[in-house]
UniProtKB/TrEMBL annotation:
MF terms in GO: carbonate dehydratase activity; zinc ion binding
Cofactor: Zn(2+)
Keyword match 4Fe-4S: no
Protein name: Carbonic anhydrase
Listed Pfam families: Carb_anhydrase (PF00194)
Keyword Disulfide bond: no
Top-level class of the enzyme under EC nomenclature: lyase
């Protein structure tokens, strides 16, 4: 059984994209441009600033972080984020980009944050989780990456905890195994409204991409309640990704984390 642990943070949100013109740039191309970084050896996170000279990887508002519940600013601002997921959105393809397993989406699902729409572009996974909550690392973290028409980024981070089988993960994993560098076309419907995110409390803070170029200005929403999936499902996904694809915990510095309820 894989258990939660309080190891010194291993986390990562590999948003395999940079803050460029997303209406003109294919996300898969962006992944290829940064493929020289990794999670081990001379290209590990400790060396990203050396590899990406003009990046934000040594910035003051970086992700991931360790979220301490008692230090979070609790506020009844849950209405700032609206989840607009429907049963009719299509996954276009799945990619093993050497850093994670990534599912790209056709136009459909979106979120609205402070009256700005952010459109779901891709979902990818990290094992173990990138963010910690009260020092705890979860077996898996799912990142749902959204981009607005003004090219702003919003990411939903959802921890995974072991328990019963998950129908959603059974669907994701029906397209596995997938080898490094391989892409598979899917074009099938997926119902992310089954996550019931609108009913769950979440932490929010301003951070960054957790992979080069570590661009700052990312709106992060990390859900307090984990989703449940089986150990078998965790292991199947892990077998298709690099081991420990996480970035180390980053300092909070002058930022405040909010707990929205």
């Amino acid at each position: 059984m894989i258990k939660k642990t309080s190891l010194p943070l291993f986390a990562l949100l590999a948003c395999f994209i940079s803050c460029k013109d997303y209406n003109k740039t294919d996300l898969s191309n962006e992944i290829a441009k940064v493929s020289h970084w990794s999670y081990a050896g001379e290209t590990s996170p400790e060396h990203w600033i050396e590899i990406e000279k003009n990046s934000d990887c040594n910035g003051k508002h970086q992700s991931p972080i360790n979220i301490i519940n008692k230090d979070a600013d609790s506020s009844a601002t849950k209405g700032d984020l609206k989840i607009l997921y429907t049963p009719s959105t299509h996954i276009s393809k799945v990619i093993n980009n050497g850093h994670s397993v990534q599912f790209d989406f056709e136009n459909g699902d979106s979120i609205n944050y402070k009256n700005e729409n952010f459109y779901l572009k891709q979902i990818h996974f990290h094992e173990p989780s990138e963010h910690k909550i009260n020092g705890i690392i979860y077996p898996i973290e799912m990142h749902l990456v959204h981009i607005s028409k003004s090219n702003r980024i919003a990411v939903l981070g959802i921890m995974g905890e072991e328990g019963n089988d998950s129908q959603l993960f059974e669907f994701f994993e029906s397209f596995l195994p997938i080898s490094n560098g391989e892409t598979k076309a899917i074009h099938q419907k997926i119902d992310l409204s089954s996550l019931f995110l609108e009913d769950k409390n979440y932490y929010s803070y301003g951070g960054s991409l957790t992979t080069p170029p570590c661009s700052e200005g990312v709106n992060w929403f990390v859900f307090k309640q984990p989703f449940i999936l089986s150990e078998k499902e965790v292991l199947k996904l892990r077998n298709n990704m690099p081991i420990n694809n996480y970035r180390n915990e980053q300092p909070l510095n002058d930022r405040k984390v909010k707990l929205n309820y």
